[in-house]
Amino acid sequence: MRVLDDLVRRAERWKALDRVARPLADGVGRAVRPTVVRNVLSGAVIGHPLHPLLTDVTIGAWTMAGVLDLVGGRPAAPAADLLVRTGIAAAVPTAVTGWHDWSGTQGADRRLGLVHAAANSTALVLYTASLAARAGGHRDGGRILGLAGFGAVTAGGYLGGHLSYIRGVGVNRTAWRRGPSRWTDVLAETDLPDGGHRTVAAGKVTVLLVRQGRRVDALDSVCSHMGGPLDQGTIADGCVTCPWHGSTFRLADGSVVRGPATARQPAYETRVQDGRIEIRARP
User: Fold this and answer.
1) Which of 27, 68, 136, 226 could be stapled to 80 by a disulfide with Cβ–Cβ 3.0 to 4.6 Å?
2) 174 near 266, Cβ under 8 Å?
3) Could you read off the pLDDT of 127-141 as tens digits, one per residue?
């Protein structure tokens, strides 16, 4: 709908939000800096972003509570209350993982993410008030507060979907990057000294080559997290760290050592033939 699109675009351009978003993002970034915290909140430990999984629990619980409130009648009241409590409990880790993911955004994504968080926080407040009203015997008031909360979480969900599916926040930036499946000549062996690294073209992609002794490792040069220039990152201890958000990948196989990245980096097989370095995509 054009009206919704216009409202979203206005939020993306509302630079006054930066005064709140910038220091808040910096604070969240400092709080989630430890590797263990990063890997848990990003979902690196399971190889999949954690925030989207948790949103399904929260939204699903509150949606079914709304259905029972509307058509379930008095017999369904205990189940509706349980679903409201479940949604509230799930909303806390959902929010924490969401703040983590948001802290790495910039510009329009950061502004819209702040509005997204405000809508969901409003929903949490309304549902908490709804649960208190239900516990106090004010069921009609609790139902009204719950439905208001559902409206807020629906708005938040719409914005979250826009961030993911329209803006591309949180998607694997290497998902459509495919290097050659056959051995492909990319560089003279003499052009890659021991301890050195180079970025080379391989078919339609660019690849980071790193040499350690006789071993040559090859990873896609675009970070899977937010598309950062991995070839400009820090190389140490058999890993490369993206300069944008600190995602760290093992050179040997592209596996994630430290988030916020959750998708492994595409890695390539390498060999030296007649003084030339060749690579091909791993099967």
Assistant:
1) 68
2) yes
3) 999 999 999 999 999
Q: What is the DSSP string of 31-63?
A: HT-SHHHHHHHHTTTTTS-HHHHHHHHHHHHHH
Q: Is the pLDDT of residue 4 over 90?
A: no
Please choose, from the candidates 134, 126, 135, the residue with its C-alpha nearest in 3D space to the C-alpha of residue 154: 126
| Placement of tokens 């809508």 in the chain | 119
Structure tokens at 116: 């997204």
Buried b (16+ CB within 10 A) or exposed e, 63-80: bbbbebbeebeeebbeeb
Query: For residues 73 and 248, which has the higher predicted lDDT (pLDDT)?
Result: 248
pTM beyond cutoff 0.85: yes
Q: In this structure, are residues 203 and 180 in contact, taking their beta carbons and an 8 Å threshold?
A: yes
Half-sphere exposure of 74 (CA within 13 A, CB side): 2
Written as one string, the DSSP assignment of 119-150 is: HHHHHHHHHHHHHHHHHTT-HHHHHHHHHHHH
Vertex 79 angle, CA 124 and 49, to 5°: 45
Q: Is 31 exposed, middle or buried (0-12, 13-18, 19+ CB in 10 A)?
A: middle
